[in-house]
Each structure stands twice: as structure tokens, then as C-alpha cells.
Automatic annotation (TrEMBL):
The chain crosses the membrane at residues 76-94, 114-137, 250-266, 272-293, 305-326, 370-391. Keywords: Membrane, Transmembrane, Transmembrane helix. This is VMP1 protein. It comes from Himantopus himantopus. The keyword Transmembrane helix applies.
Length: 405
């Protein structure tokens, strides 16, 4: 009996030591990951320009190599695509009566591809994302709305629309324009932009799905944060954690309609919905179908209505009047807005010989500079993000070498 008691005590002590060592290893590993992350975040152009550029180019070369290998493994698809492209090219250059349809399809294709591309840039997650709704789609809808109320029509001739909007020569009655007519005019570009944002949500889904199926630890901090959130779901207290858990529970329990609800409203946490769907192996078409309907149909009509109502003629006039009512600085602030609106009216009616200066308005100048700054910052964020990805590769390689020793 004494010997059995001694053996039990020894086993208990051994288990305690192993548990202690395991806890110590886990804490040291998490501390190392935290230090590595802080080290990567310091690799930015304004702190380490030479290292950042070097890592960026090396990461670009690695990605090109990986994409080339993937294309080589899918040679049949690549050859089929090239054959189809050759047929389309021949159709494009051969003269015939079909050319009018070719030109029409070319124009529509590039117009749709332009807005789909902007939508992808807005949500794909490269760096910080480019807020293309505020920079491109929102101003486009606003300009069409202002033009529709000024012209009392949406029959803008093509060309030059959409490069430049000019009122049609047809006679129209005052107040004949309807809200639905403006919605229909911008529906194609708005839906294409929404479809692009839905496509941009696919990388988190595929990453989480691949990690769950393979059982490997994913190389993504958002996914690691998601798994930590699941582990500490019971003790979550702060608002951000509770909001993330609410999105995760809605998507997991309600399924298609939960994803649709999250995608149909402006939701900065929707990346978490993609990770959740991938982690719980939600079928692809369930996730993408709900995301596409929510973002390209429901959410886009809500955003369109907001912009169109905000820039309707009477609302704009009231806003300009309210600006003029501000004490002291009101009239000086009101003047550039009035000049801008008057310049837009003249441009719509194609009267270039009027004496209103169009190139000196500071609102247009500020918006152009804002677009340039945002695009430049987006490019810088991509460079920083890819450089940090390469630094992560180096850290993981060093960690693997230490484990094999």
C-alpha cells in the first residue's frame, strides 16, 4: 500500500511538472509571438524605408513564383482561357456587321470591370483598403442626381456620358424627374461595385476553411484572434468583443439569413462573418450567395437612396442656405459652394463661353487632392503589408529551424 501511495504521489508530481512546463511554454510562445508582431509592425516606409522596400520586392517575387506554379498546375484551364481570348481578339479585329455589338459589349464590359475592381479594392483587405465608395461611387451618384434635377431628365447622351454629363436637348417639364428614374440610372455601376465588395470578402472565408480542413495553424492574425475569441467567449466583457460574438452567433445559428443580415448593412465586422463561415465549413454558395445579395442588392439600394436624397435639389439648396446662416464665417463659406453649383449647372448645359471660372473652385481642388492622398496612402499600405508578410516568413523560418535543432 505504501509503495502504491508513493507511486501515485510521484505520478501526481510528474503531471504537475508537465502541466507547469506546458503553461510556461505556452506563455513564452505567446510572448515571443507578441514581440515578433511588434517587430513586424515597425517595418514601414517612414521608419525603415530600405528594409521595407527590400522585403516588399522579395515578397513580390515569392508571390509571382507561387502564382506561376499554380498556373502551371492548372495548364488546361490556362490553355482554354488563352484560346478563348484568341477567339475574342479575332472577333474584335475582323470587320463586319457584328462590330457595333462588339463595341457596345466592350464599353459595357470595361465599365462593369471598372466598378467591380473598385469594389474589390474597397474590401479585399490589402493594407487598409481603399474607401472607393466615398471617393468614386458616392460622388458619381451625387453628380448624376444633381444633373438629373437640373436637366429634369436622365437621358444623358452617350458619349460623352459617363465621362462628362450634358443635359439632353429634348424639352422637359419642371419636376418631371422621379427618384426611381435616378436609382435606375445608377443601378448598374452601384450593383457592380457591390458585387466587387462581395468578391473581396472571399479571402477570409477560404483561409479559415482551408485551415479547418487541414488542421494546420493558419498564418493569419485575424483567424488567431477569432480562435481566442471562441476560447474566451464566456468571459467577454467589452463592447467590441460582445459585438464580434454577436456577429459570430448570428452567422453560425441563423445561417444564410444571418449572413444576409450582416451583409445588408454597413458592417465593419463582416470579415469576422467570412472567417466564421469558413471555420464552421458553411457551403461556399450559401456564404457567397448571401453576401452577394446583401451587398450588391440590398445594401447598395440603401446607400443609393441615402446619397440621392442627400443631393436632391431642395436638400442641397437648404444646406447651402444653412451654411450662409452661420455667424461671421457663413457668407465666406457659402460663396465657394454657390460657385461650384453654378459651374456644374453651366457645364451641364454646355455653355463654356460663360464667365464663371470653373478651375479655381477650392472644393474641386480639395477633393482632387484628397483622392490623390487616399490612393497614395493605399499604395503605401500595400507596400508595408507585403514587407511585413515577408518578415513573418523569416520569423517562421527561424522558429522552424529552432524546433528542428
Amino acid at each position: 500500500m505504501a509503495e502504491n501511495g508513493t507511486d501515485c504521489d510521484q505520478r501526481r508530481i510528474g503531471m504537475t511538472k508537465e502541466q507547469h512546463n506546458g503553461n510556461f511554454t505556452d506563455s513564452s510562445l505567446s510572448e515571443r509571438k507578441r514581440r515578433d508582431r511588434e517587430e513586424r509592425l515597425n517595418i514601414v516606409l517612414w521608419r525603415q524605408p530600405l528594409v521595407t522596400l527590400q522585403y516588399f520586392f522579395l515578397e513580390t517575387l515569392i508571390n509571382l513564383k507561387e502564382w506561376t506554379i499554380k498556373l502551371w498546375h492548372r495548364r488546361s484551364i490556362l490553355v482554354s482561357f488563352l484560346l478563348m481570348l484568341a477567339v475574342l481578339t479575332a472577333t474584335y479585329y475582323i470587320e463586319g456587321t457584328h462590330q457595333q455589338y462588339v463595341r457596345y459589349m466592350e464599353k459595357k464590359f470595361f465599365w462593369c470591370a471598372y466598378w467591380v475592381g473598385l469594389g474589390i479594392l474597397s474590401s479585399v483587405g490589402l493594407g487598409t483598403g481603399l474607401h472607393t465608395f466615398l471617393l468614386y461611387l458616392g460622388p458619381h451618384i451625387a453628380s448624376v442626381t444633381l444633373a438629373a434635377y437640373e436637366c429634369n431628365s436622365v437621358n444623358f447622351p452617350e458619349p460623352p456620358y459617363p465621362d462628362q454629363i450634358i443635359c439632353p436637348d429634348e424639352e422637359t417639364t419642371e419636376g418631371s424627374i422621379s427618384l426611381w428614374a435616378i436609382i435606375s440610372k445608377v443601378r448598374l455601376e452601384a450593383c457592380m461595385w457591390g458585387a466587387g465588395t462581395a468578391i473581396g470578402e472571399l479571402p477570409p472565408y477560404f483561409m479559415a476553411r482551408a485551415a479547418r480542413l487541414s488542421g494546420a495553424e493558419p498564418d493569419d492574425e485575424e483567424y488567431q484572434e477569432f480562435e481566442e475569441m471562441l476560447e474566451h467567449a464566456e468571459t467577454a466583457q467589452d463592447f467590441a468583443s460582445r459585438a464580434k460574438l454577436a456577429v459570430q452567433n448570428l452567422v453560425q445559428k441563423v445561417g444564410f439569413f444571418g449572413i444576409l443580415a450582416c451583409a445588408s448593412i454597413p458592417n465593419p465586422l463582416f470579415d469576422l462573418a467570412g472567417i466564421t463561415c469558413g471555420h464552421f465549413l458553411v457551403p461556399f454558395w450559401t456564404f457567397f450567395g448571401a453576401t452577394l445579395i446583401g451587398k450588391a442588392v440590398i445594401k447598395m439600394h440603401i446607400q443609393k437612396l441615402f446619397v440621392i436624397i442627400t443631393f436632391s435639389k431642395h436638400i442641397v439648396e437648404q444646406m447651402v442656405s444653412l451654411i450662409g446662416a452661420i455667424p461671421s464665417v457663413g457668407p465666406s463659406l457659402q460663396k465657394p459652394f454657390q460657385e461650384y453649383l453654378e459651374a456644374q449647372r453651366i457645364k451641364l448645359h454646355h455653355k463654356p463661353d460663360s464667365g464663371v471660372p470653373q478651375g479655381e473652385n477650392w472644393l474641386s481642388w480639395m477633393f482632387e487632392k484628397l483622392v490623390i492622398v487616399m490612393v497614395c496612402y493605399f499604395i503605401l499600405s500595400i507596400i508595408n503589408s507585403m514587407a511585413q508578410s515577408y518578415a513573418k516568413r523569416l520569423q517562421q523560418k527561424m522558429y522552424s529551424e529552432e524546433k528542428t535543432k
